[in-house]
Design a protein that fits this description.
This protein has helices at residues 6-32, 54-61, and strands at 40-52, 68-79, 84-94, 98-107, 111-125, 144-158, 165-192, 195-221, 224-245, 254-278, 281-303, 323-347, 350-374, 382-409, 412-433, 441-466, 469-489, 502-519, 524-541, 547-566, 569-583, 600-601, 604-614, 619-634, 645-660, 665-678, 687-699. The protein has a 26-stranded antiparallel barrel. By secondary structure, it is mainly beta. It has a domain at 126-264 and 293-344 and 373-383. The longest helix is centred in the first third of the chain and has 27 residues, at 6-32. It comes from Oleiharenicola lentus.
Length: 700
C-alpha cells in the first residue's frame, strides 16, 4: 500500500514555490540581458623602424614607412523608424591614404539608397636595373612612387517583392600618380659606349578618369526570370612613359616622353531570360550589344627635359631617335554576343548542360601623325614625315559546350566538360606616307585572313572515401590552332614584315591535378594538392617548317594542416612549392648570339605557420610567420646582357595580443619583423624592419 507522508506533502508546495521563484528570476535575468553590440569603431596606429630600401619595403608590405594612424574601421547601424535602417561603414587611415565612406539607407518593402567614396594607395619601387658583373646601378629620381585609386558612387534600388526590381548606379573611377616600368633606358656607363645595357629606370605618369552610369531591371515570376540592363562609360586617360637614355654621358643624355591619350565612350545594352520549363529542364538565354568610340592622341618626343616641345635641332639628338607628335585618330568597336544554354536532368543525380555562344566584333581605326627621325653623319640631320594609317578588322566566334555531372555511384561524383570554338576574321592594313600630297606613297597595303580552332576538355572525379576524407582528380586539355593567310601583302620583300611572316601557330596544354583532403583524428585536418601542367607552342613562318618555339612546364605542390591540440589552442600551417620553366630554342644558340637568352625559370616557395591561444576568457595571443622564397630562377649572364630572373627571400613574423577590457572596449598590440633579401638587385632592394601596431576597439 502506497502512502504519502505529511512531510512529503508539505514539500510539494515548497518545491512548486521554488520553481516559480526560479522561473521569475530567470525571466527577469532574460529581460535584463544586454543586447549584442552591433556598432563599433576601431582606432589604430602603426609605425616602422626601417634599415634598408624604403621603396622596396613599401611595395612589398604596402604600408607607409613613416607610419599611419586614424580610424581603421567604423560600423554603425541605426533604425530610423520601424521600416527604415541606416548603415554606415567608414575608414580613415592617414599615412596609408586609405579612406572609406559607405552610407546606406534601406526602407523595407521599398528599396535602398547608397552613397560612398573609397580611396587607397598602391606603392611602387622606381629603381632601375643592376649589373652584377660591374656592380652598377644608377638612381635618377625619387624612387618612392605610388598611385592613388578612388571610387565615388551613388546607387538607388527599388526592391519591392513580386514587382520588377530596379537599380540605378553612378560611379566615378580615378587613378593618378606614378609607377615603375621595365622599359628601361640604355646606358654606356655600365660597360662601354659601344656595349650599352638597358638599366636606367623609367616611370609612368598616370592620370585616368572614368564615369560609369548603369541601370538594370529584373523580375522573377512563377518559373521565369528576365532582366534588362544598360551601361554607359566615358573615360579620359592622359598617361605618359618617361624614359632616360645615356644619362650623364656628354652629348648623349636625352629624355623621352611618350604620351598615350584616350577619350572614349562606351555604351552597352544586355538582356537575359531564364525559364524553368519543368522540374527537369531549365533554359537560359542572353544577348549583349556594346559599342566603344575612342579618340586617340599622343606623341613620342626627345628632349633635354621630360614633356618637351619637339625641337628638330635638339643638341643631343642621335641617329635613329625615332619619334612622333601630333597624333590624332579614332577607333570604333562594335560587339554583339548571344548565348543560350539549358540545364537538363533526365534522371536523379544526372545533370546535362549544353550551351551555344556567338560573338561578332568589328573594328575600324585610323590615325595621323608626324613621324620624326634623325639621320647619320656628323650633322645628324632631322627628318619629319606625315603618316596616315587605317585598319579594319572583323572577327566572328562560334562556341559550343557540353557539360555532364553524375552522382549516381555511391561515394563518387563524376563530371565532364567539353568546349569547341571556331573563330575566323579578316584584317586590312594601310599605311601611307605624306597622305594627301603629290608625294603620297603606300608603305603597307595588307589584307590578312585568320582562322582559330580551339578545343577544351576537363574530366573530374570526386571520391568520398569515408566521412572527412575526399580524393579529387582532374585532367584538363586545351588545344588551339591559328592559321594566318596574307591575301594581299606589299611587304613580302621587306625586312620589316612582322607579324605577316607568321603562317601558323599552335598551342597545346595538358594539366593533371589531384587533391587529397582528410581528417587525421579529431584534431588534425590535412589538404594536399599536386598539379602538373605542360604547354607547348609550335610556330611556322612562311617558307619554313612547323617547329617548336616554346615549352612551359610547371609543377605545383601545396600542403595545409590544421591542428587543434586543445580547445583553446589551434595551429595552422601551409606550404606552396612551384617549379616553372620556359624553354625556347633561342637558349641553345651559339656564337655571337650565345648566352643572350636563357631558359626562364620561376621556382618559388611560400610557407606560413600560425598559432592562436586563448590565454584566459578575455585575452588571446596569435603568432604568425610567413616566408616567400625564389631559388634557382636567376642566372647571372650579365657579361653578355641584362641579368633577368629572381632570387629573393622575404620573411614576416608577428605576434598579436588582444585583451577585452570590458563589454565595450578591447585593445590589440602587434609587433612584426620583416626582412627582404634580393640577390639580382645587388642588395639595393634589401630591407629589415620592425613594425609596431596598436588598435583600440569600442563597441556600442
Amino acid at each position: 500500500m502506497n502512502t504519502i507522508s505529511p512531510s512529503s506533502q508539505s514539500r510539494r508546495p515548497v518545491a512548486a514555490l521554488c520553481a516559480v521563484l526560479c522561473g521569475l528570476v530567470a525571466l527577469n535575468a532574460a529581460e535584463k540581458k544586454e543586447p549584442p553590440l552591433e556598432n563599433y569603431i576601431d582606432f589604430s596606429v602603426g609605425a616602422a623602424s626601417l634599415d634598408g630600401d624604403k621603396p622596396s619595403f613599401q611595395k612589398g608590405q604596402q604600408l607607409e614607412k613613416d607610419g599611419f594612424g586614424g580610424i581603421e574601421a567604423l560600423h554603425y547601424t541605426k533604425a530610423l523608424n520601424d521600416t527604415t535602417t541606416l548603415t554606415l561603414d567608414a575608414r580613415a587611415l592617414a599615412g596609408n591614404n586609405d579612406y572609406l565612406f559607405d552610407l546606406k539607407i534601406t526602407k523595407d518593402d521599398l528599396g535602398f539608397l547608397k552613397f560612398g567614396y573609397k580611396e587607397f594607395r598602391v606603392w611602387y619601387d622606381g629603381s632601375g636595373g643592376y649589373l652584377p658583373s660591374r656592380a652598377f646601378i644608377l638612381p635618377l629620381y625619387d624612387e618612392d612612387l605610388f598611385t592613388d585609386r578612388a571610387n565615388l558612387w551613388l546607387e538607388l534600388g527599388y526592391t519591392v517583392e513580386d514587382r520588377p526590381q530596379f537599380n540605378l548606379r553612378y560611379d566615378l573611377f580615378t587613378r593618378e600618380g606614378t609607377k615603375d616600368s621595365t622599359s628601361w633606358g640604355d646606358t654606356g656607363l655600365a660597360v662601354s659606349a659601344s656595349a650599352t645595357r638597358g638599366l636606367l629606370p623609367t616611370f609612368l605618369k598616370l592620370d585616368e578618369k572614368r564615369h560609369q552610369l548603369s541601370a538594370n531591371v529584373k523580375q522573377t515570376k512563377d518559373n521565369s526570370t528576365w532582366s534588362l540592363a544598360v551601361r554607359a562609360d566615358k573615360g579620359d586617360y592622359e598617361n605618359s612613359r618617361n624614359i632616360r637614355r645615356r644619362a650623364n654621358e656628354t652629348g648623349l643624355d636625352r629624355k623621352i616622353t611618350a604620351k598615350e591619350g584616350q577619350d572614349y565612350d562606351l555604351f552597352q545594352m544586355r538582356g537575359s531570360y531564364e525559364n524553368k520549363i519543368h522540374d527537369k529542364l531549365m533554359v537560359t538565354t542572353a544577348v549583349a550589344r556594346t559599342t566603344i568610340d575612342t579618340t586617340l592622341s599622343g606623341s613620342r618626343i626627345y628632349g633635354a627635359d621630360y614633356d618637351p616641345v619637339y625641337d628638330p635641332a635638339f643638341a643631343n639628338r642621335q641617329q635613329r631617335d625615332e619619334g612622333f607628335f601630333d597624333l590624332h585618330g579614332e577607333s570604333e568597336m562594335k560587339q554583339t554576343v548571344g548565348t543560350i544554354s539549358a540545364r537538363y536532368e533526365p534522371k536523379e543525380r544526372l545533370v546535362i548542360v549544353p550551351a551555344f555562344r556567338f560573338e561578332s566584333i568589328d573594328w575600324t581605326n585610323f590615325v595621323h601623325f608626324e613621324e620624326t627621325n634623325v639621320g647619320s653623319g656628323a650633322s645628324r640631320p632631322p627628318t619629319m614625315e606625315a603618316v596616315g594609317a587605317d585598319s579594319e578588322k572583323d572577327w566572328k566566334v562560334i562556341s559550343e559546350s557540353l557539360e555532364a555531372r553524375y552522382a549516381g555511384i555511391k561515394n563518387l561524383s563524376l563530371s565532364f566538360k567539353g568546349e569547341w570554338t571556331k573563330s575566323e576574321g579578316d584584317l586590312t592594313e594601310l599605311r601611307v606616307l605624306e597622305p594627301g600630297t603629290s608625294h603620297a606613297a603606300i608603305s603597307i597595303d595588307r589584307d590578312s585572313e585568320f582562322e582559330r580552332d580551339t578545343q577544351k576538355y576537363a574530366a573530374t572525379a570526386n571520391w568520398y572515401v569515408r566521412p572527412g576524407t575526399t580524393v579529387a582528380v582532374q585532367y584538363y586539355y586545351k588545344g588551339r590552332t591559328n592559321d594566318y593567310r596574307a591575301v594581299r601583302d606589299n611587304t613580302v620583300s621587306s625586312a620589316d614584315r612582322y607579324p605577316a611572316y607568321i603562317a601558323n601557330q599552335d598551342f597545346e596544354t595538358n594539366d593533371f591535378n589531384v587533391r587529397f583532403s582528410t581528417k587525421l583524428g579529431d584534431k588534425v585536418r590535412s589538404v594536399t594538392r599536386y598539379d602538373y601542367q605542360v604547354t607547348t607552342i609550335n610556330t611556322q613562318d612562311i617558307g619554313l617548317a612547323l617547329a617548336e618555339s616554346a615549352e612551359m612546364e610547371t609543377h605545383v605542390f601545396a600542403q595545409s594542416l590544421s591542428w587543434m591540440p586543445k580547445d583553446r589552442w589551434y595551429v595552422q600551417a601551409t606550404i606552396n612549392v612551384v617549379w616553372d620553366t620556359l624553354r625556347t630554342p633561342a637558349a641553345t644558340l651559339t656564337g655571337a648570339a650565345g648566352g643572350l637568352v636563357k631558359n626562364s625559370d620561376a621556382n618559388y616557395t611560400y610557407g606560413s605557420l600560425g598559432a592562436g591561444y586563448a590565454l584566459d576568457e578575455d585575452s588571446d595571443l596569435y603568432l604568425d610567420y610567413t616566408v616567400s622564397e625564389s631559388r634557382d630562377s636567376w642566372v647571372n649572364n650579365s657579361d653578355r646582357t641584362v641579368a633577368y630572373g629572381s632570387e629573393y627571400t622575404t620573411q614576416l613574423a608577428s605576434a598579436t595580443w588582444t585583451r577585452r577590457l570590458d563589454r565595450n572596449i578591447s585593445v590589440s598590440l602587434k609587433y612584426a619583423y620583416a626582412k627582404n633579401e634580393d640577390v639580382p638587385n645587388g642588395g639595393y632592394a634589401d630591407y629589415e624592419a620592425h613594425l609596431i601596431y596598436g588598435k583600440l576597439q569600442y563597441r556600442f
